[in-house]
């Protein structure tokens, strides 16, 4: 093996109580492409931010080119020849390409010579790596793929020998992604070292020489790419978690309560996030949507609940059409029997500065039960909140306490209690147990099944494959904004993992 | 010929009235381009005006006055920086606070030190900046057309007037031709890009605020040492806010800023000139209408009815390093 | 806005930290007093005695406080909806026009208790109207409400100069103001209440507007914490995303909050116009709209806090007048400095001392900084 470009030894990093990185060891050989895979929140980005000087490790050692170094600022990293392409581009949108490239790497106090130097440098880089881009173009007028190329050019202009790319293909079309990979291969041939962070296994297999797998803050394995399979990596990524199987009987699926046809949703940048998706949810069944985070599940939930406008699609709620392209707002959908437990309870599902009882009516504050004319019926609200606190075992059991003072699990129960107790016909739940302690997980799962048994239509989106398998009567797998497969609850983890990685989808498409 | 002379006179007072606006507007340009909202231009001008006139009359030197004006104004800019950069406080609130402290302290200190009801002593020759008469201005005065333009409009202003107009190309040059300008514009648009490029966001913003302080100091000095020959309480009379309006009107660009300030200065000059004089066609226009026009125009601009004023994207938001 | 800091017990949050911020503001003000060569402690004594020492002083203090309660409430209502209404000055000023028209029209026909309600409606209506345009531009066209409300302050000033000089000024008069109102538009004084306690009052402008201000403070409390509308405003103020999730219309809630805020700002004009001067004069608001910012910041946007902060500022205004009398080096403009310092330390620098307080609390008892927070006074 060639000499190591980077060695990380025993890296630890905590944010408060969260241990983002635990005792990480990593060695990346010079002139190779090294992949780091793992689910969202596995600690990949934190690790790379430590390497780039954005954060400092609590303990551990970093060696670059065999020498121990301390990287306290991005400047240190740049000086050591480390360049980073961030997931969210660090570009000034109304600057030209040249201005972005020289920012922070100017030769002197005036721009003239810097710009001249950069212009000729960019020409050289274009020749050597095929990194074409108009140096005088304004960034915001460039397509995303070219913006990313500017980020790479920025790093190379600063003399980067080691290039870190954080989820580089998340915003790219397949063609743009292929072009990026050709560029990365060329960089490797020129002797540069590339570290590629991704959760897409197809990319790992296509381009890397070696791959490391992270899970829950630890580095669980490192493999030579040629000697491993997508199946093995998927398993390593997801891990053999403690199975939390919930007892449940057969589903008695009834009439269709939520029907989605040809739903297409774009995000604020205009990128298609949900692409022509169709599915039904019947009363008395739980439909789970599995998928690696960022494949359109969030946008799907937001569109169905009326928070985000859809571009097109026909949606029927309890047999009646809903216009999700701008007409229906969340309040109207709620009135028509759709309850929504959002993925982001901190900013969307709850107002953390509110008292518990105030949050227990959020979205239902129009309800007569909670009002006396234009006034809030505080006694009724508090009594109602107490009732839910008892039913859902929310602790501490004080409805006048600020919501921020409840633990994650109890906050989630506040949201669940609010949405479930409204007796909705359709319940959609995003990440039902994210950041929730084990005891609460079981409780929440039981509640969801009880809803099903009462004949409600339940749609669950989760990145936890185990959760999806244990709850769902039917499993839909989302990949790149599309539903790429439907399986029963008996589907194996490996089978679903392949679908989630888009493997079958890709093969079918080719 | 009378009406021609009247036009020249209106334009001459347009220039005089535009100068404090222009200096304050360019001052605001530095801080807002760096991502710091500054509604404290008014207050910084006021303390500059006071410090300038006070120091000039005590030390009998216009230049010591100017230096003091700049020094005190920069100090106030640093308070704004301390609150909004170091402590990530609300920039609007901090600006309001500075305006109040300035309004109150200039009167209190003025009264305590000079006992003239908040005024500073009238400045003597040598303590203020005199008009500079250009060569041949007197000789050419009687030449038709060009004579008055040369001797009234171009010649006969104080050094600070020429400084203010020279600051327009200079600011443009700093903004678009220097490393500091590049970084300053970047930090106002996307501070994270600046941070990851290894540049200190805070220090960059502080430096931009120093530029702001210098220019508001000069603006204040102009008011008390050129236009007025002494400090009078509340002498900025909302000029800092008009400068803010001009800055929006100019879409945060230096050359536009000059035209916006000249426009607002012209409206002011016209309203003084036309006081009570009926105009053809429209009849008598209330002075107040002309005085309100800068603000009305700015609101219409802000509403997006005549082009869109897009402020620097990171403006008003404290930078917190996060991922 | 979420604070990036750990939690403190409510009494420290709502009591200790504002107190520390306020103290620092006064200490700095004390240095200014020293700078002009006076003794800050003696100044403080004169100030407090001037404000509360005699019946007349108390009445004046409460008279000033009345205006500040209105303007403080105006700022607070907007703040609860996440908006910064810096236009109270202009909204109050323009409301004077509405009051003036009502009073001039009815003061010879109606008794005060009929003119007053009409004037309240006119004041609130004009203030609301003046806030409505910036609100609409913010909600629908994204124009920054701080800038537009500042602009509207100046436009209001021009409108008022025009109205007073060219329209409402009686023929033959030189002063830019309306004629004096007849008794039908003069509000009764409340000085007898203070006299009940045995104090003597020579002449002070404390009037029924004080009661109106207290009623409005109660109504604002009711609105913010006890009505559906207030609930919606607070939700939007804390988290626009959660408001969207809850089906609250952004446009509607911004418009309503600003209309209420503007109406309150407008009502502050009643106090000086009908209660004291009995005419509409140039610059009668004289900065009271801006004092509202300091009052709301200090009162933590809670009506009880606002009433207390307004009385504090009333005390500064009244005591400041006495101070100017006793110490020639200090004029009433000292108050403007204190006001600025309060805004600086209680507003822009409100978190400056927080980390130290937290460290202090943590060193005494680690638990105090943890979960065991009691319910806030915002209940």
What does this structure look like?
The complex is a heterotrimer of chains A (510), B (323) and C (379). With 510 residues, chain A is of the alpha/beta class. Helices cover 34% and strands 26% of the residues of chain A. Chain B has a domain at 18-170 and 177-236. Chain C is globular, with a radius of gyration of 22 Å. Chain C has 16 helices and no strands. By secondary structure, chain C is mostly helical. Classes of the chains: A alpha/beta (510), B mainly alpha (323), C mainly alpha (379). The A-C interface holds A 305-307, 329-332, 334, 340, 342, 344, 347-355, 358, 361-363, 365-366, 371, 374-376, 378, 396, 398, 400-402, 404-405 and C 2, 7, 222, 226-229, 231-232, 234-235, 238-239, 241-242, 244-249, 371, 373, 375-376, 379.
Fraction in beta strands of chain C: under 5%
Low-pLDDT residue intervals, each spanning 5 or more residues of chain B: none
The coarse silhouette of chain B is: globular
pLDDT averaged residue by residue of chain C: 88
What helical percentage do the residues of chain B reach?
55-70%
How many separate structural domains of chain C?
A: 1
What are the SSEs and their pairings?
The complex is a heterotrimer of chains A (510), B (323) and C (379).
Chain A: E1 4-15, E2 18-29, E3 33-37, H1 44-51, E4 59-64, E5 67-69, H2 74-79, E6 82-85, H3 97-102, H4 111-129, H5 144-157, E7 162-166, H6 174-189, E8 193-198, H7 201-207, E9 210-215, E10 218-224, H8 230-238, E11 256-266, E12 272-282, E13 285-290, H9 297-304, E14 312-317, E15 320-322, H10 330-335, E16 338-341, H11 345-349, H12 356-359, E17 371-372, E18 375-376, H13 378-391, H14 408-420, E19 426-430, H15 438-453, E20 457-461, H16 465-471, E21 474-479, E22 482-487, H17 493-500, H18 503-509
Parallel strand pairs in A: 3-8, 3-9, 6-7, 7-8, 13-20, 13-21, 16-19, 19-20
Antiparallel strand pairs in A: 1-2, 1-4, 4-5, 9-10, 11-12, 11-14, 14-15, 17-18, 21-22
Chain B: H1 2-33, H2 41-59, H3 62-86, H4 91-114, E1 131-132, H5 137-140, H6 146-154, E2 157-158, H7 159-177, H8 179-189, H9 191-196, H10 201-227, H11 239-249, H12 254-273, H13 287-302
Antiparallel strand pairs in B: 1-2
Chain C: H1 10-35, H2 40-52, H3 55-80, H4 88-106, H5 112-141, H6 145-168, H7 191-196, H8 209-226, H9 228-238, H10 240-245, H11 250-267, H12 270-277, H13 288-298, H14 303-326, H15 333-348, H16 354-364
């Amino acid at each position: 093996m060639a000499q190591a470009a980077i060695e990380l030894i025993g890296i630890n990093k905590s944010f408060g109580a969260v241990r983002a990185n635990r005792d990480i060891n990593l060695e990346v050989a010079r002139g190779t492409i090294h992949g780091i895979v793992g689910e969202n929140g596995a600690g990949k980005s934190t690790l790379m931010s430590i390497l780039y000087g954005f954060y400092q490790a609590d303990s551990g050692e970093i060696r670059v080119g065999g020498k121990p170094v301390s990287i306290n600022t991005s400047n240190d990293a740049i000086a050591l020849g480390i360049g980073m392409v961030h997931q969210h581009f660090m570009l000034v949108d109304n600057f030209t390409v040249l201005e972005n490239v020289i920012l922070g790497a100017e030769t002197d106090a005036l721009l003239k010579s810097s710009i001249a130097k950069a212009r000729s440098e960019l020409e050289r880089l274009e020749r050597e790596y095929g990194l074409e881009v108009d140096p005088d173009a304004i960034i915001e007028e460039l397509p995303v793929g070219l913006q990313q190329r500017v980020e790479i050019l920025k790093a190379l202009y600063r003399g980067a020998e080691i290039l870190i790319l954080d989820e580089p293909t998340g915003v790219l079309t397949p063609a743009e992604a292929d072009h990026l990979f050709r560029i990365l291969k060329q960089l490797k041939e020129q002797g540069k070292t590339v570290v590629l962070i991704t959760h897409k296994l197809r990319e790992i297999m296509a381009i890397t020489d070696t791959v490391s797998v992270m899970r829950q803050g630890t580095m669980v394995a490192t493999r030579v790419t040629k000697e491993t399979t997508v199946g093995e990596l998927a398993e390593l990524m997801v891990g053999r978690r403690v199975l939390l199987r919930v007892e449940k009987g057969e589903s008695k699926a009834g009439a269709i309560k939520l029907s989605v046809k040809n739903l297409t949703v774009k995000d604020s940048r205009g990128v298609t996030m949900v692409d022509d998706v169709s599915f039904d949810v019947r009363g008395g069944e739980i439909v789970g949507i599995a998928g690696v985070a960022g494949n359109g599940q969030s946008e799907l939930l937001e569109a169905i609940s009326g928070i985000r406008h859809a571009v097109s699609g026909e949606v029927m709620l309890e047999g009646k059409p809903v216009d999700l392209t701008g007409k229906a707002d969340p309040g109207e959908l709620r009135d028509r029997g759709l309850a929504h437990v959002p993925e982001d309870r901190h900013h969307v599902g709850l107002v953390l500065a509110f008292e518990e009882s105030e949050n227990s009516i959020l979205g239902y504050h129009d309800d007569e039960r909670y009002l006396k004319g234009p006034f809030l019926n505080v006694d009724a609200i508090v009594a109602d909140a107490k009732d839910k606190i008892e039913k859902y075992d929310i602790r501490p059991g004080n409805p006048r306490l600020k919501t921020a003072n409840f633990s994650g699990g109890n906050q989630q129960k506040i949201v669940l209690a609010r949405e479930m107790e409204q007796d909705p016909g359709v319940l959609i739940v995003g990440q039902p147990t994210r950041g929730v302690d084990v005891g609460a997980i079981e409780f929440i799962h039981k509640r969801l099944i009880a809803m099903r048994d009462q004949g409600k239509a339940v749609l669950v989106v989760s990145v936890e494959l185990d959760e999806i398998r244990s709850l769902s009567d039917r499993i839909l797998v989302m990949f790149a904004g599309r539903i790429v497969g439907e399986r029963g609850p008996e589907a194996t983890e490996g089978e679903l993992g392949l679908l989630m990685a888009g493997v079958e989808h890709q093969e079918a498409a080719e | 010929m009378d009406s021609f002379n009247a036009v020249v006179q209106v334009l001459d007072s347009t220039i005089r009235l535009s100068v404090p606006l222009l200096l304050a507007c360019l001052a605001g340009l530095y801080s807002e381009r760096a991502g710091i909202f500054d509604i404290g231009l008014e207050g910084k001008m006021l303390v500059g005006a006071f410090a300038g006139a006070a120091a000039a009359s005590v030390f009998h030197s216009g230049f010591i006055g100017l230096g003091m004006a700049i020094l005190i104004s920069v100090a106030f800019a640093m308070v704004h920086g301390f609150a909004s950069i170091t402590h990530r406080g609300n920039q609007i609130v901090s600006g309001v606070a500075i305006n109040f402290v300035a309004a109150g302290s200039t009167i209190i200190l003025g009264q305590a030190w000079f006992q003239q009801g908040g005024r500073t002593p009238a400045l003597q020759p040598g303590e203020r900046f005199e008009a500079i008469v250009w060569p041949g201005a007197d000789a050419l005065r009687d030449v038709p057309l060009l004579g008055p333009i040369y001797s009234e409009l171009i010649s006969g202003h104080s050094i600070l007037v020429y400084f203010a107009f020279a600051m327009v190309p200079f600011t443009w040059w700093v903004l678009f031709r220097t490393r500091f300008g590049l970084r300053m514009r970047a930090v106002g648009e996307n501070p994270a890009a600046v941070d990851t490029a290894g540049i200190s966001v805070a220090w960059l913003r502080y430096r931009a605020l120093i530029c702001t302080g210098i220019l508001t100091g000069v603006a204040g000095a102009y008011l008390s040492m050129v236009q007025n020959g002494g400090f009078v309480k509340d002498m900025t009379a909302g000029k800092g806010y008009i400068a803010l309006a001009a800055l929006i009107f100019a879409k945060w660009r230096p050359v536009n800023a000059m035209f916006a300030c000249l426009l607002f200065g012209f409206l002011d000059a016209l309203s003084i000139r036309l006081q009570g004089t009926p105009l053809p066609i429209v009849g008598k226009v209330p002075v107040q209408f002309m005085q309100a026009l800068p603000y009305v125009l700015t609101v219409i601009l802000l509403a997006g009815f005549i082009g869109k004023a897009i402020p620097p994207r990171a403006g008003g938001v404290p930078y917190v390093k996060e991922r | 806005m979420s604070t990036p800091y750990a939690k403190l017990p409510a009494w420290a949050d709502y009591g200790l930290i504002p107190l520390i911020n306020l103290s620092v503001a006064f200490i700095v003000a004390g240095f200014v007093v020293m700078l002009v060569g006076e003794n800050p402690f003696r100044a403080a004594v004169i100030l407090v005695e001037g404000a509360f020492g005699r019946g007349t002083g108390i009445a004046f203090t409460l008279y000033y406080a009345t205006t500040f309660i209105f303007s403080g409430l105006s700022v607070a209502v907007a703040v609860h909806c996440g908006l910064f209404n810096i236009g109270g000055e202009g909204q109050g000023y323009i409301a004077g026009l509405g009051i003036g028209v009502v009073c001039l029209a009815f003061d010879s026909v109606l008794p005060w208790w009929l003119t007053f309600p009409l004037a309240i409606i006119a004041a609130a209506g004009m203030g609301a109207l003046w806030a409505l345009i910036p609100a609409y531009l913010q909600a629908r066209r994204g124009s920054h409400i701080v800038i537009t409300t500042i602009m509207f302050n100046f436009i209001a000033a021009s409108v008022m100069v025009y109205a007073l000089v060219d329209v409402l000024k009686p023929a033959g008069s030189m002063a830019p103001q309306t004629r004096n109102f007849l008794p039908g538009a003069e509000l009764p004084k409340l000085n007898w209440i203070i006299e009940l306690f045995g104090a003597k009052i020579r002449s002070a402008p404390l009037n029924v507007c004080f009661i109106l201000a207290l009623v409005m403070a109660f109504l604002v409390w009711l609105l913010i914490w006890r009505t559906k509308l207030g609930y919606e405003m607070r939700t939007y103020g804390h988290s626009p995303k959660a408001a969207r999730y809850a089906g609250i219309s952004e446009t509607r809630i911004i418009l309503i909050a600003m209309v209420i805020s503007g109406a309150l700002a407008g009502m502050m004009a009643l106090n000086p116009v009908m209660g004291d001067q009995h005419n509409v004069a140039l610059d009668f608001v004289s900065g009271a709209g801006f004092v509202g910012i300091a009052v709301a910041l200090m009162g933590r946007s809670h009506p009880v806090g606002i009433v207390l902060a307004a009385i504090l500022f009333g005390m500064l205004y009244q005591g400041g007048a006495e101070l100017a009398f006793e110490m020639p080096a200090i004029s009433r403009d000292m108050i403007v400095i204190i006001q600025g310092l309060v805004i600086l330390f209680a507003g822009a620098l409100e978190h400056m001392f927080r980390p130290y307080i937290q460290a202090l609390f943590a060193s005494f008892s680690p638990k105090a900084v943890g979960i065991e927070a009691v319910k806030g006074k915002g209940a």
